[in-house]
Each structure stands twice: as C-alpha cells, then as structure tokens.
Structure to design on (298 residues):
C-alpha cells in the first residue's frame, strides 16, 4: 500500500474536495453583523481512502462575485476548524448582490485540493439598528385654578 | 432615561431652589417660596399629569423635570410664546430623620413671584409640563387671573 499511496494521492488529491457543502448562518451581535460559513470536514481522498491519522487538514475559505470562482477574496486561511465568521461589510460585499463561497483543503503534508463547488448567497440587506425608544411628551397639567390667599 | 429620574428629581429640587432664589427669595418647599409678597397673593394650583400623551402612566415625581408658566393678555397660547418662569416639578423635602431626601410633586406656585409680568388687571395663565427627556406637554387650559 505504501508504494501505491503516493501515486494514488497524485491522481486523486486534485479532486479531494469534489463536494464540500457550505452552510451559512448568522450570529446576532450587538456590534456588527456576523455571518458564519461552515462546511463538512474532509476525511478521505476522492477514491474513498481515509486520510491517514496524524495528517492534519486545514481549510481556506474564499468568496467572490465571479460564478466562475475567479478573483477570490480570502475570508479565513489555514483554518483548523470547519467554519469561519465574517462581516459582509468588512469583506466589501455589496448588499443585495450575489457572492459565491468556495474553499480548499490543505493537508499538513502539502497536498492541496481543488476549489469546492461554489455556494451562492445573496448578501442580506443591512440589519437596521433598532432606534432607541423616544419617550412621548407628558400630558398637560389639568385643573388649573388660581387661589387668592391673604 | 426614566432610570435617571431619581437623580433628576434631586437635581430638580435644587433647580427649584435656584429658580425661586432668582425670583427674589430662596425656598425649601413649594409652600415657602421666599419672602411672602405683601398683601393678598394669587396661587396657581394644578394637577400634575399622570400619563404621557400616549396614555402610558407617568409618575410626576420621577418623570417630570419642570414646568413652564406662561402669561398672556388673552387665552391664545401658542408654541411661539415664551415662558415667564420655569419651576421645578419636584420639590426636595427632608424626611424627619433629616437624612433622606424625598421628592414631592410641585402643584402650586405663587404668581406674584414672577419677576416680570405683563401689565393689566386681567391676565391668562397657562403652563406646560416638561419631562425628564425634555419633551413638552401641550398647554394646560388657560386660567383667568384677576389681579385686582
């Protein structure tokens, strides 16, 4: 097996991440709008062979407005986790526009996958800050009268 | 903002004293507004509002900051009128132990303490309540003041 493994890796690693489902969620925050993308962990090669124990898998997540996945912007790189958070405004995403997420997996031994299929997302409109409640005006005093006093 | 009302209430008491001092005399309670004017006096009395305009309940001792008193020759008070005096909505009152300071809503004011009044024997008086958030009420129904 050991003699075959390098060839197998060469043949299959370029398609390591044939599918890497990406999910989007929002995390309420008092200070910024935070979104989280997550994906399934990569545990095997495309031929079904499990990735060897001891090899670490890291990920880099990107976004782009190009459905062909050109001009990638990095959201997070060398991530040991299977999710990362971002602020659409900080990333420069246009509200109401469509962006595409993709990711790559990197093995600690240097192998790199292809980009995952794009996950499209329409950037949500900005969250409106809730205005502070305005206290209404008091009602007018009533029963006004003038009392003559000596 | 309403949570600041307790502090504003205490400050309002100080403001009352300062305002009254500016009118010719200091005072500790609404009933002792400085040296009494000689002769009969006219005391304007009123009932403080117990609600906001949206009918939400209002605590005068907590939610009001001061009143504005207006005087005119006629009863047509408008938003462009200027108050002749402001008086604190809450008067500080020292408890029997002499330590704690409680506030009680001000409900009357001696009109002769107003430093500058229009001439004439018949005047109309109105007032507005101002909340701790600086929102002003409408005018109270005018009251005829026969000065003679």
């Amino acid at each position: 097996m050991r003699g075959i493994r390098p060839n197998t890796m060469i043949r299959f690693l370029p398609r390591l991440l044939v599918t890497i489902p990406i999910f989007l969620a929002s995390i309420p925050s008092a200070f910024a709008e935070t979104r989280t993308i997550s994906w399934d962990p990569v545990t095997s090669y495309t031929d079904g062979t499990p990735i060897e124990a001891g090899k670490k898998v890291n990920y880099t997540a990107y976004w782009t407005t190009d459905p062909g996945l050109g001009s990638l912007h990095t959201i997070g790189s060398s991530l040991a986790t299977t999710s990362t958070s971002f602020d659409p405004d900080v990333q420069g995403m246009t509200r109401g526009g469509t962006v595409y997420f993709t990711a790559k997996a990197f093995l600690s031994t240097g192998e790199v996958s292809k980009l995952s299929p794009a996950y499209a997302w329409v950037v949500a409109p900005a969250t409106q800050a809730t205005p502070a409640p305005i206290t209404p005006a008091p009602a007018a005093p009533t029963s006004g009268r003038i009392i003559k006093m000596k | 903002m309403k949570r600041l009302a307790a502090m504003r209430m205490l400050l309002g008491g100080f403001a009352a004293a300062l305002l009254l001092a500016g009118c010719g005399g200091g005072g500790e309670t609404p009933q002792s507004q400085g040296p009494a004017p000689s002769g009969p006096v006219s005391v304007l009395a009123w009932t403080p509002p117990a609600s906001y305009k949206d009918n939400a309940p209002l605590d005068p001792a907590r939610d009001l900051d001061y009143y504005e008193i207006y005087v005119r020759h006629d009863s047509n008070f408008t938003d462009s009128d200027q108050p002749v005096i402001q008086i604190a909505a809450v008067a500080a009152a020292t408890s029997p132990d002499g330590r704690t300071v409680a506030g009680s809503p001000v409900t009357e004011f001696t009109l002769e303490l107003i430093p500058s009044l229009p001439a004439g024997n018949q005047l109309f008086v109105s007032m507005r309540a101002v909340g701790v958030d600086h929102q002003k009420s409408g005018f109270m129904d005018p009251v005829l003041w026969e000065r003679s």
Notes: Confidence is low (pLDDT under 50) at residues 1-34 of chain B. The beta strands of chain B are 41-47, 64-72, 85-88, 90-94, 101-105, 108-110, 122-131, 143-146. Chain B touches chain A through 46 residues (CB under 8 Å). Residues 8-146 of chain B form a domain with the Immunoglobulin-like fold (CATH 2.60.40.10).
